[in-house]
Amino acid sequence: MKRMVRILDGNIFALSEDNGDMTFDPPSPSGFFVFDTRFLSTWRLTLDGEQLHPLAIHEPSYYEIRLFLVPGNPTHYVDAKVSIIRDRWISDSSFTERLTVLNHTCEPAEYVLRIDIDSDFAPIYNVVWPRATRLRGYREVFEDRLRLGYRRERFHRATEVSTTEPAAVDNQGMTYRIQVDRQGRWSTTLTVRSLVLRPDGADVREQLGHTHGQVGTQLRHDLSRWLADAPRLHCDWQPLTTTYRRGLTDLAGLRFAPLAMPHETMLTAGLPWSATIVGRDAILTCYQTLPFVPRTAATTLRLLALDQGTVLDDFRDEEPGKIINEFRYGEMAAFEERPQSPYFGGADVTPLFVVLLDEYERWTGDGQLVRDLEEAARAALHWIDEYGDIRGDGYLWYRRRNENSGAMNHCWKDSPEAICYRDGRLPGLPRATCELQGYAYDARRRGARLAREFWGDPAYADRLERQAEELKQRFNRDFWIEQGEYFALALGPDGDHVDALASNMGHLLWSGIVDESRAPAVARHLLGPQMFSGWGVRTLGTGQARYNPLGYHLGTVWPFDNALIAAGLRRYGFVAEAGIIAEGVIDAAQHFGGRMPESFAGYDRALTRYPVPYPAANSPQATATGSTFLLLRTLLGLEPYGEHLVVHPAIPQRFGRIELLDIPGRWGRMDAIGNARITT
Which ranges carry the Putative glycogen debranching enzyme N-terminal domain (predicted)? Predict the structure, then answer.
């Protein structure tokens, strides 16, 4: 498999082969994407008709890359007489590439440099699931540029490619016939602009007052400020430091300005498949990173409140008070061939919205945002009671309103087969997964605090606390499987146990819904041989009929899942177990260049000796990136209490000493220092 290289700026990214070429292949995400649309599907460079091969790749930052190339087969690399440098970067919603040809001979030389250019203007969903297009495409050739475009009714997209040096421009690309002096160089710069056009020819983003991306030195300075504002980490175990620094840079790259709030930034979910607003991922990432980079949380909360559900809409699975789970900008969403415009098919997002709002105030002291979003938070809590309690039994259930194109599962394990019985059967709808009850419990308790301290409504606070306690008692009775001493993955439509052994019960510890007496059994399962691979907790335990170490939610290991599990274990006093998970997951990241992967295979560590990649994983991915930060918070025992930050380290031996300096919060800036436990 060829290595893929990428540059990005939020939801704008370019993904190519390791020689810089983007080659059209329907299931491949190769190309230049802006707001869910592929504006380049072919970008192929040849010299004298020969393909180019990489000698070296330099990636100084997330938005720029340099490729060193030579023509011909790899056997020709020795004493190459010509080489090419491809410098590329993303800025201001444009993709720019500077081509430099170097003549290494003692004589002037002539070359024919060719760049093939094409665009299928496919929405990202069409890349995954190809379909017949209804587009009316066109091409316009100018002296110094090529424009590719398509129209479908009022939907109009265009790609414009310009060059700084003279070229023969045709419908399929540009050709340069150049002469380079001995030991000399020749260079040109190609700029690819993405145009989102209205019928009058104006760019939609400009009409909305959107600032597009940043340019050149702005991106560099912005990244420097972002890194300087974050806490500084020093650790005796280098892998933690490496993953932390890589995580900060990846978070910076995942920031984008949503169209509805063009002067603010939030986090896109991941590249390439989820480079858009995903409510669940945005909330969980903000939660994980609050002690480190809290600025994106306020934007996320405001945007999600702005788009909160107000009506019953079966197509979008919308209900009053419900928080969106996904928003897409591409053609399929615009023409309602997919419901993501926006889509509300996530039963967990709404309670998690309240969880983040409370956690944000605990860390930042920003009570004004809590007051500003009171109506949205109350509507979210009401949704849990009114629309989430489908069966009227006090549990949070889900079923899809959109029977044609809606998601089957409305929890974080949203693949069709993820919620299953131990014997492999799939339950009917509605379903009540166990972690949803934990989120609802936590949301009510946190909502009660907000009502009492900020909304001036103690009666409402009392009611929420009573509901939370009743849910906890009922849940520990109804979801507990006595024979195996673990919590059921879900309740089926008849109220029976969906009895697969899954990682979801680790989220129950994070939410606090588990009775103290049952926590030790849950911890034993999570760290037992069926669940723990040596690198982390599997999504589904071995021995379950549908277990597959390469199954998306059926046996892979997800770092964000593990970070929540570790935080839950620490909450219930299982500090050694939390440390084991943190060490395994951070160790695994070193096999991915220090970048925390979205997921990886669930093979036993003793079998493979290294974590096996999941082939279709997003990279970088927001919740995975955020997991490093929540794991670090768990190891140091960081908790805000009023105006104070409490530090209670519980650090495994391998980490040695951890110093986290200048932690931002309502207290200003504070340091946290911890040493590994002394074992005898």
Answer: 8-190
Q: What's the gap between Cα 514 and its chain centre?
A: 28
Q: At a CB cut-off of 8 Å and minimum separation 6, what does 480 contact?
A: 486, 487, 488, 518
What's the distance, Cα to Cα, between the start and end of the chain in Å? Answer: 47
DSSP state letters, 79-137: T-SEEEEEEEEEETTEEEEEEEEEE-SSS-EEEEEEEEEE----BHHHHHS------EE
> Which pLDDT score, from 0 to 100, does residue 128 have?
63
> Does residue 155 have a pLDDT over 50?
yes
What sign does the dihedral 58-63-69-73 (CA atoms) show?
Answer: positive
Report cis status (omega within 30 of 0) of the bond before 291: no
**What phi and psi values does residue 385 have, to the nearest 5 degrees?**
-75, -40
The more confident residue out of 123 and 391 is 391
CA separation for the pair 86, 52 (Å, rounded)? 11
Residue 13's beta-bridge partner residues?
A: 8, 33
Q: What is the pLDDT of residue 207?
A: 46
3-state secondary structure (DSSP) of residue 488: coil
What is the percent of the chain where pLDDT is above 70?
94
Distance, in Å, from the CA atom of 489 to the CA atom of 181, rounded to the nearest integer, reads 70
pLDDT per residue over 251-268, tens digit each? 999 999 888 888 899 999
Of 279, 282, 280, residue with least CA distance to 267: 282
Buried/exposed 14-34: b ≥16 CB within 10 Å, e otherwise? bbbbebbbbbbeeeebbbbbb
Phi, psi of 516 (to 5 degrees): -55, -35
Chain position carrying tokens 């939609």: 204
> Position of tokens 């145009």?
195
Provide φ and ψ at 236, rounded to 5°: -65, -30
Q: How far is CA 187 from CA 53, 103, 166, 184, 488, in A?
A: 19, 12, 11, 10, 63
SS3 assignment for 620-666: CEHHHHHHHHHHHHHHHCCEEECCEEECCCCECHHHCEEEEEEEEEC
Lowest average pLDDT, out of 60-64, 121-125, 453-457, 595-599, goes to 121-125
Return the structure tokens found at 283. 């909330």
Q: Which helix (H) or strand (E) holds 61?
A: strand 50-61
Give the pLDDT confidence of 623-664 residue by residue, as tens digits.
999 999 999 999 999 999 999 999 999 999 999 999 999 999
* 309 touches 380 (CB < 8 A): no
What span, in angstroms and rounded, lies between the C-alpha atoms of 50 and 30? 21
Q: Which residues, other chains included, contact 403 with Cβ-Cβ below 8 Å and sequence gap of 6+?
A: none
DSSP category for residue 48: T
Distance CA(108)–CA(89), nearest Å, equals: 30
Lowest mean pLDDT among 79-88, 256-265, 332-341, 522-531: 332-341
Q: Is 495 in contact with 430 (CB distance < 8 Å)? A: no
Residue 390 predicted with pLDDT over 80: yes
* Residues 164-207: tens digit of each pLDDT: 999 999 999 999 999 999 999 999 999 999 998 876 666 655 54
